[in-house]
Write a structure and sequence with these properties.
Layout lengths: L14 E5 L4 E6 L6 E2 L4 H9 L1 E3 L10 H9 L7 E5 L2 E5 L3 E2 L6 E5 L3 E5 L4 E4 L5 E2 L7 E2 L3 E5 L26 E5 L3 E2 L5 E2 L1 E3 L11 E3 L1 H11 L8 E3 L2 E3 L6 E4 L2 E4 L6 E4 L3 E8 L6 E4 L9 E9 L5 E6 L11 E11 L9 E4 L2 E4 L4 E5 L9 E4 L9 E9 L7 E4 L25 E7 L5 E6 L7 E10 L7
Parallel strand pairs: 4-5, 5-8, 6-9, 7-10, 8-11, 9-12, 10-13, 13-14, 17-18, 24-25
Antiparallel strand pairs: 1-2, 2-3, 15-16, 19-22, 20-21, 21-24, 22-23, 26-27, 26-28, 29-30, 30-37, 31-37, 32-36, 33-35, 33-37, 34-36
């Protein structure tokens, strides 16, 4: 001490501390002897009363790992001791494990910092073994500091009162592993874990979300977009027009309306190759491309990281979607010809047009009767579309009326008078362009009011309108 005591020993009960709690410059003795004595620091007084030990009394008496290790290990693991660290940076240049010294309490004088080197680890018993000021920085470096919770303390509390608090400020690049069951900040909720969960389906009240999962969740919500939203993502025949399809940029809700799927760069997929991730890669989900087969084009989302891709499937619900992908949206359909080549088409929004419209119905000199007949057209299979067709009849009787309708509505008798159900009027070789809603088997229904053996019927399919789930 810098000074001397006039008489006897001085205890804490004899002192009236003046100035900073940790570094008082003077105290006043309150006994009958009286007098003021300057002490070097408050820890000098605390050491006398609490059996505290200055770490620098051991080893090489310097602020190093070896000195601190010597101070701690010399005390054993049974007797409660307090080791205080003088101001300055203590270099922890190698691993140091004090996990078994739950009897040792570390008092950090203001300015005392344990600097743990990169790749090294400092292990301490628990946060209750640390004595430091509120908000006091006590660790630095890029190593790891681990607290092993072995005293039954269930949380790390910080409520601003100074009670049971641990103030730890970590230098940039450093890390601290607090091994406690739960973490409580102030009077808010208690956190028990950290989850990297993009869809946040667990809906936990005690888990913190990672930055990546929060971003993925917010991006997926796409709150500004309504149910079943779809924009862009137009399809076109790629340079290898017989086998490849290019998807334009765009965005859409997936079929469950849980995620927004965004294609930020155009993508080309190959129908004649098994599916592989990325553009200019295989696109067929299963099997090999067949002749005269409808394939639905899907935008798909990878579950693990939200990556967007695309491909082809005969299933309208993407039953053969690649492993690791569960979210999808059908954005169109293509048809192969008799040589397994994609037929050329043009798309604008929801409308698809054949570049070479097929003549799907060609009936000549046939008495097809006055009963309703289903006519299969070159429009997507498995979904309802609005077929755009040109219909014509030749050599029909003077009283013959043709009525074309959706198979999902009632089968009605054609007529041109009171019932007014016809698109081809009686006369010589009538012709009309009409739009008819199909069933999911690519069919419409036709019926005539009268016929004979010389009647002809022609239906050429120009294209179709496909809302692609926007009405779901």
């Amino acid at each position: 001490m810098a000074g001397s005591l006039v008489k006897g020993l001085i205890g804490k009960e004899d002192c009236d501390i003046q100035g900073d709690e940790l570094y008082p410059s003077t105290f006043s003795r309150t006994s009958s002897v009286g007098g003021a004595v300057n002490l070097r620091s408050f820890p000098d007084l605390w050491m006398t009363h609490q059996s505290a030990i200055n770490a620098k009394y051991y080893g090489a008496h310097d602020a190093t790992r070896a000195t601190l290790n010597a101070a701690v290990t010399s005390q054993g693991t049974s007797t409660v001791k307090c080791i205080y660290l003088e101001p300055g940076t203590w270099d922890i240049g190698d691993d140091l494990d004090f996990s078994s010294y739950s009897n040792i309490f570390f008092y950090f004088c203001p300015g005392a910092i344990l600097s743990v080197s990169t790749g090294k680890a400092l292990i301490l018993p628990c946060r209750a073994n640390i004595i430091a000021g509120i908000g006091q920085r006590i660790f630095s470096g890029a190593g790891t500091v681990t607290f092993v919770s072995d005293d039954g303390i269930s949380s790390l509390a910080w409520d601003g009162t100074g009670t049971n608090e641990l103030g730890i400020n970590v230098a940039p690049g450093a890390s601290i592993d607090l091994k406690v069951p739960t973490l409580a900040l102030g009077s808010g909720a208690t956190a028990a874990s950290i989850l990297d969960e993009d869809d946040m389906t667990s809906d936990s009240a005690t888990a913190l979300a990672t930055q990546q999962s929060i971003k993925a969740y917010v991006d997926g919500l796409a709150l500004a977009h309504p149910r079943s939203y779809l924009a862009g993502l137009g399809l076109s025949n790629a340079p290898d027009s017989e086998h490849d399809v290019t998807l334009a940029t765009g965005e859409t809700k997936d079929s469950s309306n849980a995620y927004m799927l965004k294609l930020t760069s155009s993508m080309t997929k190959q129908i004649d190759a098994s599916w592989a991730a990325g553009t200019n890669a295989g696109g067929l989900f299963a099997g090999t491309v067949g002749n005269l087969t409808w394939y639905h084009v899907f935008l798909i989302r990878k579950d693990s990281d939200g990556t967007i891709d695309a491909g082809f499937d005969t299933s309208v619900t993407a039953a053969n979607i690649p492993a690791g992908y569960t979210k999808y949206r059908r954005i169109g359909s293509v048809l192969s010809d008799g040589s397994a080549n994609i037929l050329a088409f043009f798309q604008r929004g929801d409308q698809f047009l054949w570049k070479d419209p097929p003549l799907d119905i060609n009936i000549t000199n046939s008495n097809y009767g006055a009963s309703a007949i289903l006519r299969t057209l070159s429009v997507p299979l498995g979904v309802q579309t609005k077929a755009l067709v040109i219909v014509s009849s030749t050599d029909q009787p003077a009283a013959q009326a043709h009525y074309f309708s959706c198979p999902d509505v009632n089968d009605e008798v054609p007529g041109v008078t009171t019932n007014l159900l016809c698109q081809l009027y009686p006369g010589t070789d009538p012709i009309a362009q009409i739009e008819i809603l199909t069933n999911t088997s690519s069919q419409i229904r036709s019926r005539v009011s009268a016929t004979d053996a010389t009647s002809d019927l022609y239906i050429r399919t120009l294209g179709w309108t496909d809302t692609r789930g926007k009405d779901d």
